[in-house]
Amino acid sequence: MLTTVVGSYPKPDYLRIPDWFTDANLAKGYKYTPADFNDFQRAADKEELEKQITRAIREVIQEQVDIGIDVITDGELRRENYVYHFCRQLDGFSFEELEKVTYRNGACTGFFPTVVSEVKPRDDSPFVVDEWKASQALTEHPVKITVPGPMTIIGTTKNRFYKDRRDLSEALVLVINREVRALADAGCKYIQIDEPVMMREPEIAEEYGIEHVSRCFERGFGLQRGFGLQRGFGLQRGFGLQRGFGLQRGFGLQRGFGLQRGFGLQHVDFLHRRCPLPHRPVIPAFSVSIEDAHCHTDLSFLSQFRRTTVVLGVVAIARSRVETVEEIRGRVREALRFLPPSRLVLAPDCGLGFLPRHVLRDKLKNMVAAAKTFQES
């Protein structure tokens, strides 16, 4: 039984890249906006910053390896966040012309970057693949890379250019697909598309969102397709074949489903809307990532996955209490009533950026310990 993490890690103190995880420290009265990164970028010594990023990624990778995580990430440490870092590499987004937006059912207000012209690659060279290569060069363990999905990019920016959201989504599919194909060509085995907004807008997801995220994977892999549509998406390419070597594509819907800390909890049970899962549009994923630790669901729906591997969230990322090994084992035993162990991967619910480092270490250690008990049995 494999283990993985979703994406983000808290940045070390010496890496001063501003990010939205800083919002967790409300005592400082700080609220992130993209303008913070603009200022940071202008003032940073780029050569020194790159050294700090490499050091931080090396440390995070080694920590995951030491804990025993099978499929690791670089902690997304070079990114301000997983969405805006991607958008900054494209033409069409303005991070100077910000617009105040109320979101998450009125629970939050923030300043979003704007779409002011055609969204397209800035040049002929894909960019995410370079990040992955730099991180993969630091370890022999497989490194998973994350890419934001179209609906999630649209949900965290303000469209001033395209006629409607669907047209903007069409443009985003093309640039995301280019990055995914470059990653696959370079040998990246674990590619995760994060699409949490899909679960907050199920009508749009069913109208075109599922089709669009599926097209992000087109011509990238030539492997079998699998079902993938549920409460929390981490759609990945790679899990479910040989240990450590299986190609996996995946959805990252775990990022944001029922998020905490005043973000406006919204439980959308997409699984049971309108029609049973097998009749929904098929997503070309080999694994899907589902949050379960934050809010347990009836895991009987897992029986509807005939070939797809499930990456199950078994430790919460929005509370500091550390789940015991036996608690995690209990949830895994329940999942194994509906899935074979070869198609179950253990993970946190979402990114780990909000957690203190010592807390996330304890959570991951217990997750790995729980997984090992099933490998030994």
UniProtKB/TrEMBL annotation:
Its cofactor is Zn(2+). InterPro entries: Met_Synth_C/arc, UROD/MetE-like_sf. Signal peptide: none annotated. GO terms for biological process: methionine biosynthetic process. Residues 42-200, 288-372 form the Cobalamin-independent methionine synthase MetE C-terminal/archaeal domain. It comes from the Eukaryota. Pfam families: Meth_synt_2. One of its GO terms (molecular function) is zinc ion binding. Keywords: Metal-binding, Zinc. The keyword Phosphoprotein does not apply. This is Cobalamin-independent methionine synthase MetE C-terminal/archaeal domain-containing protein.
